[in-house]
Write a structure and sequence with these properties.
253 residues; alpha/beta; TIM Barrel; 8-stranded mixed β-barrel; 12 helices; globular; binds guanosine-5'-monophosphate; binds manganese (II) ion; binds sodium ion; Bifunctional diguanylate cyclase/phosphodiesterase
Length: 253
């Protein structure tokens, strides 16, 4: 397929970029982290959304190569920031196929070592789909990653398989409330119920809870009174180029 071919060429020619979306703490408005999101501008097609090419790359298996690049680049960026005095944890989205690679843990460890980045500055976002594939092997892998000191979070929480048993068993530190549940706040009674339940459950389990896709003050205020203290969304900032991100975090520079 054409897009698949172009994607391979784009990686080979270094045409992928990462943008970083700030994660903000309630009250202080401090930026406490950055989610790395891949961007691809093709000379002919223009900007192509990862919502379009990541699913295709998952089908063809090419997502493993893309994922390796994303991991290396995000870790390198965090290391560059650290070298300039900006200690900023970066979160990377991990595809199921990538997580299933036998050498995934080694790949992560090597990326951290090569960049000399403390593992505590890397977060891996796993979806429920990733977690439910092969739970025993997945569990071993998560413990190995946690032992490295990497933070593990569940992305799009609430949209996947609804087995809650894994929250108890898996070494997860953080839940990301999917933006589909944030969208209807505070008016939609279902979203209110789901958001409240996720925050309360997360807190009861000692997990950090961050809300994604926060676009309005009313959404933020509802989530804040529900006990959610970390936010990501257009209300705070869109995904930014590394230099824009740095400006946003350190306006004086
Ligand atoms: O940033 P945007 O809203 O366009 O992303 C669309 C989708 O692509 C989201 O589901 C997001 O998780 C996914 N995505 C963005 N960057 C990456 C990446 O680096 N790796 C993977 N696996 N998915 C990504
Ligand atoms: O699947 P994942 O949660 O990784 O997807 C993150 C995606 O959400 C990114 O593509 C990012 O561009 C997008 N995003 C970030 N903030 C907002 C927001 O406030 N509203 C909407 N609609 N999308 C957002
Ligand atoms: Mn994500
Ligand atoms: Na999400």
């Amino acid at each position: 397929m054409r897009l698949d071919h172009d994607m391979r060429q784009a990686l080979a020619e270094g045409r992928f970029r990462l943008h970083y979306q700030p994660q903000v703490e309630l009250g202080s408005d401090r930026v406490i982290g950055a989610e790395a999101l891949i961007r691809w501008r093709d000379p002919q097609r223009g900007e192509i959304s990862p919502a379009e090419f990541i699913p295709l790359a998952e089908e063809s298996g090419f997502v493993v190569a893309i994922g390796d690049w994303v991991l290396k680049e995000a870790v390198a960026q965090a290391a560059r920031w650290l070298a300039r005095g900006l200690r900023m944890p970066v979160a990377v989205n991990v595809s199921a196929l990538q997580f299933q690679q036998p050498h995934f843990v080694d790949t992560v460890a090597a990326a951290l070592r090569d960049a000399m980045l403390p593992a505590s500055l890397l977060e891996l976002e796993l979806t429920e789909g990733v977690l439910m594939r092969d739970t025993e092997e997945g569990l071993r892998r998560m413990h190995a990653l946690a032992a490295l000191g990497v933070t593990l979070s569940i992305d799009d929480f609430g949209t996947g398989y609804s087995s809650l048993g894994y929250l108890k068993r898996f070494p997860i530190q953080r839940l990301k409330i999917d933006r589909s549940f944030v969208q209807g706040l505070p008016g939609d009674p279902s979203d209110v119920g789901i958001a409240n339940a996720i925050v309360q459950m997360g807190r009861a389990l000692g997990l950090q809870v961050i809300a994604e896709g926060v676009e309005t003050e009313a959404q933020r205020d509802f989530l804040a009174q529900a006990g959610c203290h970390e936010f990501q969304g257009y209300l705070f900032a869109r995904p930014l180029r590394p230099d824009e991100f740095e400006q946003r975090v350190r306006p004086r520079r």
